[in-house]
Predict the structure.
Amino acid sequence: MIEGILIGLEAAFSIRNLLMVVAGCLIGTFIGMLPGLGPMSIIAIMIPVAISMGDPAAALILLAGVYYGAIFGGSTSSILLNAPGVSGTVATSFDGYPMARKGQAGKALTIAAVASFSGGTIGAILLMIFAPALSSVALLFHSAEYFALMVVGLSAIAAFAGTGQVAKALMMTTLGLILATVGEGALFNMPRFTLGLMDLQSGISFITLAMAMFALPEAIFLVLNPARGAGGQSGSGKISGLRFSRDEAKAMAPVIGRQSAQGFFIGVLPGAGATIASFLGYAVERNIAKGEEQAEFGKGSVKGLAAPETANNAACTGSFVPLLTLGIPGSGTTAILLGALIALNVTPGPRLMTDTPEIFWAVIISMFIGNLVLLILNLPLIPYIAKILSIPRNYLIPFILFFTLMGAYIGQNNATELLILVGLGVLATILRFADYPLAPLLIGFILGTMLEDNFARSMQLYRGLGFILERPMTLALLVLALLLVLLPSYRARRARKRAEGVADGD
Amino acid sequence: MALDRWIALVFVAFCCAYGYLAFFTMDELLPPFMQRNPVWPSTFPKVLTIMGIVLGLIVLLGLEKPTEEKELSATDINYRRLQDYKLGQALTLLGLMVVYALMLRPAGFLISTTVFLIAGSAILGERKWHIMIPVAMLAAGFVWYLVQQVLGIFLRPLPFFMGV
């Protein structure tokens, strides 16, 4: 492990990779600040750039930098405008915006920066401890367990979509899996569902799908509803007084400690990402706080600002654990990262740490550097960076659309791909109107090929479905997946029965 | 019927078509030696078909009820009142994207991108031509330089009749 860390240090501190961290954080902060563009859209737009660099370590470092930069940038617009750029920073605006209204915008931004830095750094330390441990366990897994694990991951993502939504989310997952079967698979060497079209021979490009699912609908929503970009009234007058007092630091410290750990472990769970971590972190801290401090929540509490900021950054780091050790993404964003890695001929999984330690460790070490860069970048530069919030939407939207088109074009070098992009984008927008979650679709699409490969391999090894019964671990995981899917609707049914006054038995 | 159930209906129909291909056409093409395998190329699609139809029907028949009606915030879009939003602008921009896709090869990257950016902001109501035009031209040139020279991906810069 020490050897690996040393290799990672060497790789992470190369001039090129340092530049990647800085570039990623800068781009992420800038774009994450723009209301409406989430980390998934930003990463989707950045992928062609990352892939064309050819170096998987540099690509992953760049994209990871963009990811936490975006979360960081999102908190800036939450605090200054009450218009969260990303859903993971909605909870930040609960106390951040009131603070800015009181004329303490500078202090709020500093607290957010320090909390994010601490959350990210502690998260990275936890990642260093847990990822290798999980890796060594994962080496014992066979294709049957992998198949079951992916089923658990997909069910968990659907289960977290919310009550009354599980069937919809699973429907989207199935659609993603169906789309993944189009084209020529590695396992069977025969084209499937290409309808005789040459363009479908190599399947649907995941970059195009990612753009169409996230960046394009978001841009269309921005056009449809101008209120979406504007947020509340602009509070970005003068930003001064960046310091916070010693007492406030004392109040924050335990919050940061608790939320780093809690956020990290929520991030590790499939389906629960930065958004859930930040809301839960806020709720927990409000309940723990006593008397006066509790009353302060929602009116500009230091603790209320530090909690979601710490938790969302720790969760971002945590979500790398399943990606790096199992090769199974737990969220839409890490699914896009997985797609990028596969495009670069790297298969993330337990062997990543032993086979290519320079990628594994360089990424983890670059997270420390990235958090430091964000801290240095944000404290003195925030007043200037915040100016980007005043770019008029008439300029912004054509550029977002243009970058979406460019992303799909560069990935495939094919103008037909742009038409597919627009078509899928319209489809995705309609799906969003009807409140269908889109992340399960993309995750299903990316995991689809691997899921089928592992399923087919276990079927061949055990000459049939016997592997489910012969491998207890597989059975246990599949039962867990079933429970995850059924539990939310069972509980909703019980709650409804109670409300109707018909208690069912207990 | 609400939009989400219409979508579920379309999805079930889609699954039926997909399932028809999987159940009735794929296995005929299978070479005899592969027929002894426990898993065929059509196995997974068949499972997906059944899953898709079952899930689609659950949504279509409304078997899973949402616990509470979600409240729309000011920034969400209510599709039932779509005409209240800037629908015309959105559709025109989508049309512009299609035109861009068709013009990219024949007209070259620089011209089509500049026109796209200017037309895009014009559709959104911008009328400050003295800012829009230089910004669009600069951006087109910069992105072309980045993609062609730095990333090394070929993009035809000029119209087809001007060489390259």
About this structure: The helical segments of chain B are 3-25, 43-60, 87-107, 109-123, 129-150. The mean pLDDT of chain B is 84.
